[in-house]
Amino acid sequence: MKSLQVIEKLFRYVLRYRLQLILLLVVSLFGVGFEVIKPFPLKFIIDNVLGNHSSPFLNGLLPSEFIADKKKLLLFCISAMILILVCSAALSAWIFNLTITLSQRLVYDLSIDFFSKLQRLSLAFHSKNKIGDLLNRMNGDVFVVYFLVAQILLPSLTSIVSLIGMFYVMVKIDVLLAVLTFCVLPLLGFTLAFFAKPMNDTTMTQYIKHGEMSAFVQQSLSSMKVIQAFAREAFMQGKLNTHAEEFSNAYKKANKVSMTYNQLSLVISGFTAALVIGVGAYRSLDGRLSVGDLFIFVGYISALYGPITSLSTAISTAITLSARGKRIFEILESDEVVKEKQSAIRFQSLTGGVEFKDVSFGYNKSEDAVLYNVSFKVKPGEIVAIVGPTGAGKSSVISLITRFYDTWNGIVSVDGMNVKDVELHSLRNNISIVLQDAFLFPMTIKENILFGNPDATEEQIAEAAKAAQAHEFIHKMPEGYDTMITENGASLSGGQRQRIAIARAFLKKAPILILDEPTSAVDALTEAKIFSALQSYAKGKTVFLISHRLSTLKHADQIIAIKDGRVEEKGTHESLLAKGAFYAGLYKHQHIS
Ligand SMILES: Nc1ncnc2c1ncn2[C@@H]1O[C@H](COP(=O)(O)OP(=O)(O)OP(=O)(O)O)[C@@H](O)[C@H]1O
Ligand SMILES: [Mg+2]
């Protein structure tokens, strides 16, 4: 993605609010007008009140008796001075307000699009990208659109207009002095050109180092238990120190470069000021310039610094803008991989038949496949157990039913429809799932269970929790269903977490229920109770069950045994035992041990 393309894409966001932008530009131009006329009242006080110059402008504006009365004229000039100051301050406040409102709106839009894209991106994308990095993009880089408006577009335009305005007034007063004053521009331009690359590079390094440090802190905070369990606090502290030191060095370097540039620009404009005052005073001695006009020049020299700094900030921001904007559009435009077809079909209610036809699948095209030619057929209402050693591919099989990933070859179909032809939402709405690592949100227990079906009643929640053998322990908690769960359910035992996740899936009441080792952390007696509740709950539903405790799966209508990504055997518990091969080996081994 080229820099210009990034800017163009950002512009598309800005143009959504073209009316606000035009209003902002118009108000800003008025603001510039006030800046340009600011030194005039002082000029008139010096030349026309204190001195005896005559001004065609004042003569045209005021009656001659008024001009002749110096006290009245002084009062007029002072009032004009105050009026200009007040108007200019009011306009600045208005401009500030308009800028903030517009740019916040833009940042909001970009953040919303970014988050919504993140939610659509497949799990393959999320397992490749670090959360810390995505957070930095979401919290930091989306501000590029703010910078585009508040630090580039607006300041550049107003600066250029105000420079032109001041130059016009100066030329009208004294051409030589105007040219001398504006000599400062190319000098500052050269300085900026010299500093642009180092300023950009050091700023980018500062961002990167900051990102690395926050990613490290974020990872450490979420693995504090492991750090403490292995007593590796000092090691992690050392790592943080290195990150902090690198960030601090990058920060110092970036600020040193920009400080040098700022000081150099100050020296250049200070030098220009001295030169202009010297030459101006000399020409004033010659009578070619009034003292009041000299004051206009002096006023403009300090006023020049504003637009010039804004312009140089605009240029240096523009340099980092495309780099940071690229980080946003990289995500916004990344391929969704698991894509919904334009003409995707919406499932209403399913009967729950599932079929795999010659399915091959892997997580990474550059690596070997994880599943090879997997085929099986499940009739609506069947209970299917998927068994096999760890790493055999059981979780991978079920993640293809919900279409978390797409197959490499072969077809996964639900109710006879290829899942690739179905609307993702309608497919997943028809599936209840307990994932292998039961994730809970930092909300109340009730809200966690309701996640499966936000419209459920209190009774339905309690019913699902009872079936999942969770009601009793929830009920005993001081705040019951309103108990807040800490991040990732850390305040609960492993088995409690799993039972809440089961209740959440039960409450959804979808025609297909998938349970991936739902009771691995639950004792055998409670597990047996959950499975007996499941028998009645799952009537008419298709159930996929994965468990390493094979005794719990005996009653399944069909057992699919997977070994190294291939279906090794299929059949009922009895038929597979009778066969005396792979499954029988697994089962006997468990029973002996
Ligand atoms: N997100 C992923 N990215 C890359 N490879 C993965 C990913 N998830 C699983 N794998 C790999 O796919 C293979 C099958 O994993 P899978 O999780 O399906 O096994 P499983 O049978 O569910 O094992 P377990 O009983 O331990 O849960 C493994 O070799 C694993 O390393
Ligand atoms: Mg698994």
Q: What do we call the CATH topology of the largest domain? A: ABC transporter transmembrane region fold
Ions, cofactors and other ligands present here are: adenosine-5'-triphosphate, magnesium ion
CATH superfamily of the largest domain: ABC transporter type 1, transmembrane domain
Which runs of at least 5 residues are low in confidence (pLDDT < 50)?
none
Percentage of helical residues? 55-70%
Which architecture of the largest domain per CATH?
A: Up-down Bundle
The radius of gyration is 36 Å
Number of strands: 10
Mean pLDDT: 89
Order of the strands making up the biggest sheet: 6-7-8-3-9-10
Fold blueprint:
Layout: H1 3-14, H2 18-37, H3 40-50, H4 56-61, H5 64-68, H6 70-120, H7 123-128, H8 131-139, H9 144-173, H10 175-182, H11 184-222, H12 224-229, H13 233-285, H14 291-332, E1 354-361, E2 371-378, E3 383-387, H15 394-401, E4 409-414, E5 417-418, H16 424-429, E6 431-434, H17 445-450, H18 458-467, H19 471-476, H20 494-508, E7 512-516, H21 524-537, E8 542-546, E9 558-563, E10 566-571, H22 573-579, H23 582-592
Parallel strand pairs: 3-8, 3-9, 6-7, 7-8
Antiparallel strand pairs: 1-2, 1-4, 4-5, 9-10
Helix pairs in contact: 1-9, 1-14, 2-6, 2-9, 3-6, 3-14, 6-9, 8-11, 9-10, 9-14, 11-13, 11-14, 13-14, 18-20, 22-23
Bound molecules: adenosine-5'-triphosphate and magnesium ion (MG).
Residues 394-395, 436, 516 line the site of magnesium ion.
